[in-house]
Amino acid sequence: MAVSGFEGFEKRLELRFFHDENSIARDPMGLRLIDFESLDQVLNEVQCTVVSAVANRSFDAYVLSESSLFVYPTKIIIKTCGTTQLLKSIRPLIHLARNLGLTLRACRYSRGSFIFPKAQPFPYTSFKDEVVVVEESLPKSLCYRKASVMTPSNNPSRAWHVFTASADVESDETVVVVEVCMTELDRVNARSFFKRKGDEKSNSDSAGKEMTRLSGIDNINANAFICDFAFDPCGYSMNGVDGDRYSTIHVTPEDGFSYASFECGLSLYDDGHEDISEVLSRAVDVFRPSDVSIATTYGGEDYNNEVTKRVERVLAKKLGLKCRSRIMDEFPGSGTVVYQSFTPRRK
Amino acid sequence: HKQISITYHFFIHTRSEDNMGSNVSSVHDVHSSMETKSALVLEIESRRQWRSLFDSMKGSDKLLVIDFTAAWCGPCKTMAPRVKEIASKYSNVVFARVDVDRLMDVAGTYKAMTLPAFVLVKRGEEIDRVVGAKPVELVKKIEKYNV
User: Fold this and answer.
1) Is B76 among the catalytic positions?
2) Looking at the domain assignment, is residue B50 inside a domain?
3) What global pTM score does this model have?
4) Which positions does UniProt annotate for substrate binding (chain A) (predicted)?
5) pLDDT at B20 over 70
6) Is A254 annotated as belonging to a binding site?
7) What is the ipTM of this complex?
8) Pick from A139, A234, A335, B43: most CB atoms within 10 A?
């Protein structure tokens, strides 16, 4: 384990809004009307910038210098890594939404455990401090709140931290969010994410495309349009766009602190879409990591134990990954979170 | 370790680029620059206009760049000033902006669903495309095919 290096583990913020009863014109575009300059200013506060962007009828997807931003009409998801100040975005985003007649309805802040916790700035040095900062930024109307640290008994250093706040006691969010965090990536697989010698000056977009192809990331979801980006001298980010579904992958390939994340939003009752366990298995297979954790957030759905078990079966069968722990927790107004951790069978 | 070079800050519009050259215009220059300005990016309003442009270009070796946009596309709006700059720099390339909701069949023909999408066409055939707000890649491809 390196003494210090780039922190791959992301901080994730999700804000959900609803249209004011008083607002005269309810533009279906909602948050997508926020102009780019304003978004850029918010991201400046967080210490990251936009490197690439695409949109379709359902949402806007931005690849950032430190991860990703997704803007739906009533939902924003920001995921940033390194030593970014993600929580600084809460107040300005609430303000920008207010100007469009949108009121905050729910907030979720989550992250894994940092590889280099001491390198983080305040308040990210302790989850307790992060929770204080989030709470201070939220209106009192979000009265159903809970903070939880889900710690696997077999690996206490890889906990999952969640804070949720909601104006409603029940969530009607139909999207299920799956977040996969992988460390100790296979060294050969990780090599795909280094820019080749002589490529340093080349266009990052074409280098990104090469990485997407070489690594097999383009096979995870053949339907998705992939907006990719290769960093200097190494590192990779992509946003996948498939109808109203987003997906995102971020890779820190350096040995000693290698990390990759895969996240997607989907619906459990996915007619016409592929089984999530197959998609997850392909995503994990790209990296062949020695350590995998999966956090699944079931919005308003009743926790679906079948999906959890199926994911465990598929990962065991196809990748020889054994589930070492499974923790479940319920969050009022936000749903259920299931946190699983896996390591290869031999270990 | 993740170094972001200055070229990636393309979204930040620099005032100085706007004002370049404006001090040296004469009466003639104003006239021609007005002409160039109005023709920088052709806004395609109708199918007929599209057909006429497309057919007129089929016979020439001129590069056509179709800029697919939509009202719901935030990234397209941020890309627009960059497209204008690129269009003014490559004056022998024809830029045509097509709103995918207004000209649905053209959008359908080129499968433009994720935007912005820049489709490069020569002699009536698509030769390449850039999807996403990527001015650097767009310029690279224009230079490649603008011969």
Assistant:
1) yes
2) yes
3) 0.89
4) 6, 66, 231, 254
5) no
6) yes
7) 0.82
8) A335
